[in-house]
Specification:
Pfam families: 4HBT. There is one protein chain. With 173 residues, the protein is α+β, with helices and mostly antiparallel strands. The protein is 23% helix and 34% strand. The chain has a 6-stranded antiparallel β-sheet with strand order 1-2-4-5-6-3. Helix 1 crosses helix 3.
Length: 173
């Protein structure tokens, strides 16, 4: 059997994989110390005194978190705002890279794209899944999916948005 390529993450649904406590602790701390200092992330995800996002699982290069939609997450039609979905893709792409090898810096965005597939409304809970596709010497590639949570079962329902996020990750020497 060939050894797994060290640049690609393990496969599987994070909710079906055992969470790694060190990775979960790292991305939680990274979020609290780095992400909440960004005004846009604090507005969408809350801050240390009023967290809106709740991490549910993490392991090498993969994590999930849940967010209950509040008024600041909605557009004028009462559905999740496209800018909020784009912010979630940006945020989760970076955190997936942090989950890859417990790094303290996740680089800068090179490319980001989002597809909007369905909606979610005030009070709905969404699950964000950030996943590394590949981390190389200079670039990291991630995929992010946002799911609406079925209130009756607590499990994933419709996909609200999907995105890909590429980041320049080579550190200065």
């Amino acid at each position: 059997m060939a050894a797994q390529d060290q640049t690609t993450p393990p496969t599987g649904n994070p909710s079906q994989l055992e969470s790694d406590q060190a990775t979960l602790a790292h991305i939680t701390q990274y979020h609290l110390t780095r992400c909440t200092s960004s005004p846009i992330y604090a507005f969408v995800l809350g801050d240390a005194t009023n967290p809106l996002i709740r991490f549910t699982s993490a392991r090498k290069g993969i994590f999930t978190a849940r967010l209950r939609l509040a008024p600041q997450h909605l557009n004028s039609s009462g559905s999740i705002h496209g800018g909020v979905s784009a912010t979630l893709v940006d945020w989760a792409g970076g955190l997936a890279i942090a989950a890859w090898d417990l790094r303290g810096s996740t680089g800068v965005s090179v490319d980001i794209n989002i597809s909007y597939l369905s909606g979610a409304r005030l009070g709905d809970e969404v699950e964000v899944e950030g996943r590394v596709e590949k981390v190389g010497g200079s670039l990291a590639f991630t995929e992010v999916r946002v799911f609406k949570i079925d209130e009756a079962t607590g499990s994933r329902g419709a996909v609200v948005a999907t995105g890909r996020h590429t980041k320049f990750v080579r550190e200065k020497k």
